[in-house]
Amino acid sequence: MASTNNALRVLFILAVVCAVCTAKRTGPVKKGDTTAAPAPEPESAAAAPKGATKATEAHGTFDISKMGAISDGKTDSTEALQEAWTSACGETGSATVLIPKGDYLVGPLNFTGPCKGAITIQLDGTLLGSNDLSKYTASWIEVSHVENILITGSGTLDGQGTAVYPKSKTAEPKALPNTLVLFYVTNATVSGIRLIDSKFFHINIDSSKDVSIKDVNITAPADVENTDGVHVGGSSKISITNSTIGTGDDCVSVGPGSAGVTVTSIICGPGQGISVGCLGRYKDEKDVTDVTVRDCVLKHTTNGVRIKSYEDAESVLTASKLTFENIKMEEVGNPIIIDQYYCPEKVCPGKRSNSSHVSVKDVTFRNITGTSSTPEAVSLLCSETQPCSGVELIDVNVEYSGKNNKTMSVCNNAKGTSKGSLEALACLV
């Protein structure tokens, strides 16, 4: 009898132990729950890229440091970042590519869509652009055919252009990569980041719409051309605001085919100012319309606010509904310019033959104040065959800061009105 009782005790203890182990594996079974085993692992988790298990568990966040990227500024991390984009782009719903603090060396990156959901690129570290030019066929970072993307953070895109800039202005120009290109992108925001020393343009917005650039800081050497801060071409509904930009070229440039562009609260300098153009350089360019530049400060730039078109323009197009208002100039070389004789290469066959095919009309310069570092504060040089029309100079009071000359203006073939402006600047007819 005793042996029988001992056997029963052993069986009971084994049963309890088995029950406890089962509970630890599957968790408690709720009342009414007939499912005792966990659900199978989703296919998306099973297909996660190698080394990304921790990154993908965080609600669609792909951390490049957990996917093979090394933050020593020397090891090529291109593959890890490209893989993070591919994984995020394939996620249903929102996904994030996380670039944590550290320095990551990367070559050309192609962030191509369409993607299954909205994408955030969280840039908290620094991406360093490779200086091996043989790797590039176009730009450094190109975002193309993507809807709903946010590029944000406190990090930096460092193009490392100082190592490859032309050593002299007479050197043969090279086709160097832009830092960040938005190409056929819709509903995009670039916010908070810093861009420095691009090999070419820092941000190039092309064939896109509903794009916001805000709270960015862009810097490059003052003596290097083609390092535009933000360039817009063939795009619509573009906002560039609350940013500090200082480069060797235009702080902001608006090219052909652009419409509905707003540039506000920009501190610009050094550089060549804020421009509409160049226009007419290539065939089949489209009109520019509805551009507003407002509440900006330009410091020690070679030009202020400018409209420029080639004197031997290849295209017939119109630039219209352009407004520049509430602009403060601080020692700016040429504060207000319309130039239909633009010819930087000095080999234009037009030779001021009044052959311009670009029409400029309905332009307003309003409440522009400050100082000019040259006597010619206003220069409106329009074509005889394509006179500028509907030009307004309203409350324009920019004075030459020097002592050896007086403030001047030049208006050729420019038709419009002046009101409330410095008498020396009221040259419109």
From TrEMBL:
GO terms for biological process: carbohydrate metabolic process; cell wall organization. InterPro entries: Glyco_hydro_28 (IPR000743), PbH1 (IPR006626), Pectin_lyas_fold (IPR012334), Pectin_lyase_fold/virulence (IPR011050). Pfam families: Glyco_hydro_28 (PF00295). Belongs to the glycosyl hydrolase 28 family. Residues 1-23 form the signal peptide. Gene3D superfamilies: Single-stranded right-handed beta-helix, Pectin lyase-like. Residues 29-53 are annotated as: Disordered. It comes from Paspalum notatum var. saurae. PANTHER family: PTHR31375. It is an enzyme of class 3 (hydrolase). May function in depolymerizing pectin during pollen development, germination, and tube growth. Acts as an exo-polygalacturonase. It catalyses: [(1->4)-alpha-D-galacturonosyl](n) + H2O = alpha-D-galacturonate + [(1->4)-alpha-D-galacturonosyl](n-1). This is Exopolygalacturonase. Its main location: secreted. One of its GO terms (molecular function) is polygalacturonase activity. Keywords: Cell wall, Cell wall biogenesis/degradation, Disulfide bond, Glycoprotein, Glycosidase, Hydrolase, Repeat, Secreted, Signal. Its EC number is 3.2.1.67. Residues 34-53 have a biased composition (Low complexity). It is found in: Secreted, Cell wall.
